[in-house]
Amino acid sequence: MGVEALLRLVAGRDKRGPVREQASIAALALVLATGCQLFGGVRIHEIAVASGKPSNVAVIASVTRDGKPVADLPRSAFRVEENGQKLDPLSTHLQLLSPALVTGFQTVLLLDLNDASSESRRKQLAKAAGAFVRRVRRRQGVTVMVFDGAAKARVVSEYSPEPHAAGPDQLDELLKLPARDPSRNLRGAVKQALQALDARLDGSRRPVRRGTLVTFTRGPDLAGRVASNDFEALLDDSDDQLVYIGVTGDPIDEDADTLGSAGRVMSQGKDTLAIAFDEAASLVSRLAGKYYLLSYCSPARAGKPMLRVTVAVPNTDGDDETDSFESSFDAKGFFPGCKSSSPPRFARTSKRGSATTGSGSSPSAASHQSSGVVNQPSEPIPVEPPDEHVVPPPDKPGYAP
Asked: How high does pLDDT run on average in the chain?
């Protein structure tokens, strides 16, 4: 059960059935027992661990504080241990690499055309959306979709990741779309947008894939094409990050809370959409920035060492808040000659949101040739070499060049 569903259960407002007293008590006890983990503090979450010969180990992890992304941490913020022994970052060549080497990011921007029938409002929306795309595509691909009351949402445009591209001043395609239905099929459009996001992420060769849906709407669902219960189940099952953009004073319902589980941005009026969309673009970038790729050369030469990764994040008092996770990897046959700048292969599972531990030769000791079946579950996917679509690591201390 996800956190959102758990909170609905405790509050007694789960719409998928009556809340049993025993279930409420059990859920409340779970919340009280794990409150720190759910609601506050620094958290590091293991996404995937991979190992490969000669002695490469790499970790993909996300870091949050109070549920919000923590970006731009230096290498010194991370500590690595094997079997309880702290590893020297210099002798193990511990470094941070760009997560884009092994992680595919994609965003879908879903726009409500219900209140953009006039030319002036349509231009405002087109400019705000253009600024959003221009900023977000520096790190990831962006798909723009629109909806009204019709049964099907429409794809307006697609943008590949281009770190140095200027991007559109406005989405001219929006100015050409005819209105079809004055109702609002919000739930149906969200369902189709998540399907479009899945399709684009499934097409990525990178073993870890992370999607974000940004929804702009001027009000709640009016069409009723997708039942409320089915909509809740859809969002509970999704592992995509959800960002909500709204306008202060517009009618909203609890769908707005669910669609803003990763963040809500409210425009103060119809004329300030550009500011809200820019804030939403900044949030999307921060959500991608919470992911870190640590790579090092293990001193292990056999067995399955217990790996512990700890992160320390300074707070306003100058003290460090820490959290850690433990995992293991296969060190059988390890030998000297490791280059931590070449991380080992990660294995991609059929579930696109996570990757399993992979093993085998690192790119420094093996060819980049793949099997050709890139969608095969658990098929090891080689790390792709940097290209024009891969954002380089930040020019900050601790990041590998």
From this structure: 81
How many CB atoms neighbour CB 400 within 10 A? 15
Domain boundaries, the chain: 3-39, 42-98+294-367, 103-289
In the block, residue with structure tokens 């790996």: 307
Give the gyration radius of the chain's Cα atoms: 22
List helix spans (H) across 34-159.
35-39, 119-136
The two structure tokens encoding residue 134: 């221009």
**Paired residues of 215 in beta bridges:** 110, 244
CB 116 within 8 A of CB 149: no
Options 1.10.357, 1.10.10, 1.10.3120, 2.60.40; which CATH number does 42-98+294-367 get?
2.60.40
Is residue 264 within 8 A of residue 244, CB to CB? The reply is yes
CA distance 265 to 277: 8
386 to 122, 139, 298, 315: CA distances (angstroms): 38, 13, 24, 34
- Tokens 């991609």 identify what position? 348
| Contact indicator for 182, 148 with CB cutoff of 8 Å | yes
Confidence (pTM): 0.77
Q: Model confidence at 109, in pLDDT bands (50, 70, 90)?
A: very high
Region 206-214: mean pLDDT is 93
